[in-house]
Write a structure and sequence with these properties.
Elements: E1 19-24, E2 31-32, H1 37-42, E3 54-55, H2 58-77, E4 81-83, E5 94-95, E6 100-101, E7 114-117, E8 120-123, H3 139-148, E9 153-156, H4 178-186, E10 204-207, E11 210-214, H5 221-230, E12 235-239, E13 254-258, E14 261-264, H6 272-279, E15 284-287, E16 311-314, E17 317-321, H7 325-333, E18 337-341, E19 357-362
Parallel strand pairs: 1-4, 8-9, 11-12, 14-15, 17-18
Antiparallel strand pairs: 1-19, 2-3, 5-6, 7-8, 10-11, 13-14, 16-17
Region (Disordered): 35-54
EC number: 2.1.4.2
GO molecular function: glycine amidinotransferase activity; scyllo-inosamine-4-phosphate amidinotransferase activity
């Protein structure tokens, strides 16, 4: 499929083919949202974010935007076309017939909302009330792509109601403890119920004909079944990682680098029975290097394992956060050229290098990387 920098073509089937066109988020007007069931379950019990909400300090927003702008420039210097969202007013409340929350979140992590599969970009349901309208930050780009690419399919999953029935009340206690959380994760008992389909796009990894989807806090089994029905030509596989007490989004846990090679968080190993599809098809799953930091940055939802939240530019080149020296060293030993990107001061706005981007175009088509299934 031909690509031109002057006109949009949407095409991306996996996480590693040569990247030619991408969306990079912005930190504008990012808020710490008010308490709500999904958010309360995710915020670590000892986090400095508990009990806080409101717009993030402007100097931190400016710093994050400075880093995101530089990241976008680095990608452009490598021949990648970069688009940016148009931020809405995230201070506005979200009110529906079913719930009210006093503010929204932001638009730094497009990967959470937008799932690109072939010529389609799908807007995820989202399972946080504060993120209900987050797709609006990207609608100007979706409209542009639709005008420029006659084969582009712009889809949106059914918006969930997000009533209290969507959340297990057991998770509303601030003092659950890590041991109990790990037990619940092993039992696949998460904050989200099976009331209605829920999924975040960042819980999905694309392997050509196969989609690997994490079952956890932000994606339930009905959400995975919805994806299975929506993509009938794909094989959709459910995975989970029992070692994660706060299981949201797969891309700081399981990171494909090229055909046949995946990094796995050593604290959240894929269970043996779920490894079978990879081993039967010659894939190697290696433990990721340790993070360079013992703590996340201030007011950050994410864990220190954003170290492995990398952006693969092609099967031989990968973007790694500049301070994550152990991860960079591992990539070098795996035969990958490392592009250092300074982004740690933007982590708190929604994640790392993979989170802060969404594919529009990667070279290549839909391949079958798991013929022995």
């Amino acid at each position: 499929m031909a690509w031109s920098p002057d006109k949009t073509t949407v095409n991306s089937w996996n996480e590693w083919d040569p990247l030619r066109h991408v969306i990079v988020g912005r930190a504008d007007d990012c808020h710490i949202p008010p308490e709500e069931p999904a958010l309360d379950a995710k915020v670590p019990e000892d986090s400095d974010m508990r009990g806080q909400w409101g717009k993030r300090p402007q100097e931190t927003i400016d710093r994050a935007n400075e880093l995101l702008d530089k990241f976008a420039d680095q990608l452009r210097a490598r021949g990648v076309k970069v688009d940016r969202p148009t931020p809405i007013d995230h201070s506005l409340p979200v009110t529906t017939p079913d719930f009210h929350t006093a503010s929204q979140f932001g638009c730094m992590p497009p990967r959470d909302v937008l799932l690109t599969v072939g010529s389609e970009i799908l807007e995820a349901t989202m399972s946080y009330r504060c993120r209900w309208f987050e797709y609006l930050n990207y609608r100007p780009l979706m409209q542009q792509y639709w005008e420029e690419d006659p084969k582009f399919r712009h889809e949106a999953a059914p918006k969930p109601r997000l009533t209290d029935a969507d959340y297990h009340p057991d998770y509303l206690s601030e003092k659950i403890g890590v041991e109990k959380r790990l037990q619940w994760a092993a039992e696949k008992f998460f904050v989200t119920t099976e009331e209605e389909p829920l999924f975040d796009a960042a819980d999905v990894l694309r392997f050509g004909r196969d989609l690997v989807v994490q079952h956890g806090f932000t994606t339930n089994l009905k959400g995975i079944e919805w994806l299975r029905r929506h993509f009938p030509d794909h094989r959709v596989h459910t995975v989970n990682f029992p070692g994660d007490p706060y299981p949201i989004h797969i891309d700081a846990t399981f990171t494909p680098l090229r055909p046949g090679l995946i990094l796995n968080n050593p604290q959240r190993r894929l269970p043996d029975d779920q490894r079978e599809m990879f081993h039967k098809n010659g894939w190697e799953i290696v433990d990721s290097a340790q993070p360079a930091h013992n703590q996340p940055p201030p007011l950050c939802y994410s864990s220190v394992w954003l170290s492995m939240n990398v952006l693969v530019l092609d099967p031989k080149t990968v973007c790694v956060e500049k301070s994550e020296v152990y991860q960079a060293d591992q990539m070098d030993k795996l035969g990958l050229e490392v592009v250092e990107v300074d982004l740690r001061d933007a982590y708190a706005f929604g994640g790392g290098l993979h989170c802060s981007t969404a594919d529009v175009y990667r070279e290549g088509g839909c391949e079958d990387y798991f013929p022995n299934l």
